[in-house]
Amino acid sequence: MFTKTIAAILALPFVAQLASANTCTRTYTAQAGDICDSISAANNVSTYQLAVVNMGIIDEACDNLVVGMSYCLGWQGQDCTTTYVVKANDDCDIISTAAGINTTILYENNPQIDEYCSNIYIGEVLCTATTVQVPPCPDGTTPATSIPPTATPANPDDGLPWCDE
Predict the structure, then answer these.
(1) Contact between residue 23 and residue 107 where contact means Cβ atoms under 8 Å apart
(2) What single string gives the DSSP state of each residue in 36-59?
(3) Mean pLDDT calculated for residue range 73-77
(4) d(CA 144, CA 29)
(5) 8 Å CB contact between 92 and 103
(6) In three state form, how does the secondary structure of 109-144 look?
(7) Nearest alpha-carbon partner for 46 in 75, 94, 82
(8) Which residues pair with 84 in a beta bridge?
(9) Angle at 153 between CA 149 and CA 158, to 5 degrees
């Protein structure tokens, strides 16, 4: 009995840490016409972060938002509020320069971006904080690394001018 009590007491800080690791720090109530990128842009939350903190609630296509439902925007200690909305002809070098960060930090805060930065799209919201602030994906993977079918690639030629020929 004594051993079980000691084990429970020793485990308490770890259980408390796990419970607080996913404490939502801010929320948004969905409105008619919302899409994940519009919610992200209006609330300074990356598209990736919105997907991760609502994994299992918002589907990969983000077509199941419910008007009037409250969605989490960030978790305590893992809430990036410095963002950049991708524009036409953007690439990771342009975005990181504009944000004053290096590409390593850009990739760490946006793990859905592929190694060639060829899967960013116009309207996608990226975290551009100077330190790593986004939560890891709960199941150890990254959500949606492909461009949504309705989105327009930011740089369809991947920055290679000879692809236009």
Answers:
(1) no
(2) HHHHHHHHT--HHHHHHHTBTTB-
(3) 95
(4) 23
(5) yes
(6) HCCCCCCCCCCCECCCEEECCCCCCCCCCCCCCCCC
(7) 82
(8) 126
(9) 135
Report CA torsion sign: 16, 22, 28, 32.
Answer: negative
Tokens encoding 136: 């890891």
18-60 pLDDT tens trace: 344 589 999 999 999 999 999 999 999 999 999 999 998 998 8
Identify whether the C-beta of residue 83 lies closer than 8 Å to the C-beta of residue 45: yes
Spatial neighbors of 119 by CB under 8 A, at least 6 apart, are 112, 113, 145, 146, 147, 153
* d(C-alpha 14, C-alpha 11), whole Å: 5
Contact yes or no for 74/81 (Cβ under 8 A):
yes
